[in-house]
Amino acid sequence: MFEIEVVLSPALLHLAEVKNRNVVVIDILRATSTICTAIHEGAIAVRAVESIDEAIILKNHGYVIAGERNGHKIEGFDMGNSPFECMKGALTNKKLALTTTNGTKCITAAMTAGASNVIAGSFLNIDATCEWLKTDGRPVVVLCAGWKDKVNLEDSLYAGALAKKLLNNEPNALDCDSTHMVLDLYEKAASNIGEYLVKSSHYQRLSHLHHQEDMEYCLSENIFTTVVGQKNVEMLKIN
Ligand code: MLT
What we know:
The protein is α/β, with parallel strands linked by helices. It has a single domain, classed as ComB-like (putative 2-phosphosulfolactate phosphatase). It has helices at about 30-40, 50-60, 105-110, 125-135, 155-165, 175-190, 195, 200-210, 210-220; strands spanning about 5, 20-25, 45-50, 65-70, 70-75, 95-100, 115-120, 140-145, 230, 235. Strand 9 and strand 10 (about 235) form a beta hairpin. The radius of gyration is 16 Å and the shape is globular.
């Protein structure tokens, strides 16, 4: 029986046991999907940073810098937070520093809290990530980035999808109500996640900013098998 705890918001992270556990950070729309894409597309590493100033310092050390605030590209940065900007050789053999409204803060929080490994979660590589976690065998904390400490639907749904795969359909032995909750949510939405998410606040926000294509891409399942996790302070390919 796999031990798994879902943390629905970063504001609840302090309540979870993180040490000696693998933490999967999820910001499906779009930060962790973009990080996985960047590594899959040939970036050497992605450094998740909290502030704009930290990213600017890294630019002086040769990093490409990318980021958004409230969905808008940061002025003066090389890239925003669209996974498509990481494609077509844009990051081949380069290092990327990324700062986003929610996702990158969760990655640094999980690192600081002493996780054994911090993994970037995405639908794009969900099966490969699940296999990696099963092989490693440590208990898993699934940390949903949400929106400014509030719970959101898309990260909760991914948590449900991952929990279902990790538990091999054996949820009854679970001692974690948030995991039961996301499993039930996933059951309700699984047949058409894209349609289910139309009502979600970030889906609406990104629609208004014309990021429809990004969302369709981020909700695609298993289009690559690259697993992305932390080594020291960077995220890179770990399988
Ligand atoms: C975040 O970190 O809040 C997101 O990735 C926002 C976005 O969609 O760019």
